[in-house]
Design a protein that fits this description.
37% of the residues lie in helices and 31% in strands. The chain is an alpha+beta fold and 107 residues long. A four-stranded antiparallel beta sheet has the order 2-3-1-4. Strand 2 (36-42) and strand 3 form a beta hairpin.
Length: 107
């Protein structure tokens, strides 16, 4: 299993819009494209204005394939367009890829 920690650096005043977009659209679109989100967090220091989440993938090849399908999904393209009418929501996105270690059972 490949775990992707995605970190979104949110533009000022846009956190609620990003969270609403995930709640109302993106989580279901990810499910539609075989991507499983397992955890969500927001930074405990609001000054940082960051959102974090984990997506599970079988491997990197499948991850890339699923994201390509997601990014080209007409529903996503329209959701993104509408949600960003007042400007970009995210100014930086990072991905950190992780795998399990043999000495500890993650739950």
């Amino acid at each position: 299993m490949l775990y992707e920690l995605r970190i979104y650096h949110i533009n000022s005043g846009k956190m609620k819009v990003v969270q609403d977009r995930f709640r109302d659209h993106v989580i279901q679109l990810f499910i539609n494209h075989n991507m499983k989100i397992t955890h969500f967090w927001e930074d405990s220091d609001e000054v940082n204005n960051r959102l974090y989440y984990i997506v599970e993938h079988e491997n990197m090849e499948l991850r890339n394939h699923n994201y390509d399908r997601f990014r080209n999904d007409p529903e996503w393209i329209e959701v993104k367009r509408i949600s960003e009418l007042d400007g970009a929501l995210i100014h930086k996105q990072e991905s950190i890829f992780m795998k399990d270690v043999p000495f500890f059972e993650n739950k």
